[in-house]
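Bug #77: duplicate submission created two jobs. Keeping one. Sequence:
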Amino acid sequence: MHRQILRLAIPNIVSNISVPLLSTVDTILMGHLSAAHLAALGVAAMIFTFLYGNFNFLRMGTTGISAQAYGSGAERELAYTLFRALFLGVSLGLVLLLFKTPLLDAGIYLMNVSPSYEAMVRDYFHIRIFTAPAIFAIYALMGWYFGLQNAWYPLWITLVINLFNLVLSVYFVKVLGMGVAGAACGTLIAQYAGLLFAVMLLYRYRHLLHGVSWREIFHRKPLLAFLHVNQNIFIRTVALTFSLAFFYAQAAKGGEMLLSVMILLLQFMIWMSFAIDGFANAAESLVGKYYGAGNWPLFAKAVRYSFWWGGALALLFALVYHLFGREIVMLYTDQQPLVRESMRFMPWVALMPILSFGAFIWDGVFIGMTASKSMRDAVVVSTLLFLGLFYLTRGIDYGWSLWISFLLFFLFRTLLQSWMFRRYGRALR
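Kept job's structure:
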């Protein structure tokens, strides 16, 4: 079991780590221009995290359903799952393009965007919004590959996207001097290059895709089941991204300095979460496979060992953040006021991996079981607890209250999902 987990997790970790690497490069590029550029990039990226992150159910739901079909040997259902996910993804991407102007206006209002950097936020948005159909199609394809226990294809896809994005962003920002618009252009071109590559990789599975009936793809019962799983994951993700958007919006209320500090601190969260997600993705694939096959001893091992590996990696991140927190902050910015203010929060940043890793692993387990309702409920309740804790304590120290409440949001999820699994076990829904 350890070997199976590592076979899936290692390429996932490499793939996932390359994503914050790109975010790191963009943050460094903006952080060395001005605090306004850094704030604009952070807010604009958060708007897209909210928009696109809410549709990550296309990846998660597709993984769970595909993994169970793979475990039970239902090859026809594998093909239909892919086409349903692709159809839904491209359709949703086109809907976002249709409503791009009101979505941007709402994002600027809700994120408390300052007039000092609003124009940069708008420039970034109007370019990057055209990535929506490509990103949603990539979600579907990557989820399908994960369900087939293939972690290498998602790795290659991610590396292709991020290599294009890295090179183009540096070129557009540093050479052409395009600022935040340059970062957005790099992302736009990279996503469509990644989609083309992801579609080319389907050639290996062409034997599964022959003779597909469009009538069967849109057959009412399986289509409704697919939409039901994704509906619950969608609600869960809305609550999750709302929490992150709320965090950014409240930081923006504290002024440009506090917002910039929180953007820097979130880089630590991003690096850790994407790495831990490697083991969460492995849990999705293995738990789904053994759940679909009804192999309960291996199902239990997949759950247990995923937590062991995720916990070990969390301890490693905690140690690195404790020892090298200042040095990491100084990679992002050379502005000493930002560095000094960030260091006030570093003890809690070092504790963050220990407090939060369980939430990521449990999500992987619940996705593999397609227990989307339970996962939804855990995140919604945790969001309410996070909001309540922040409003109760914000009068003491605004910055500390915001950061610690946000960290405990992940601990709340861990505790709730642990209780759910202990109580309901394989009967989770």
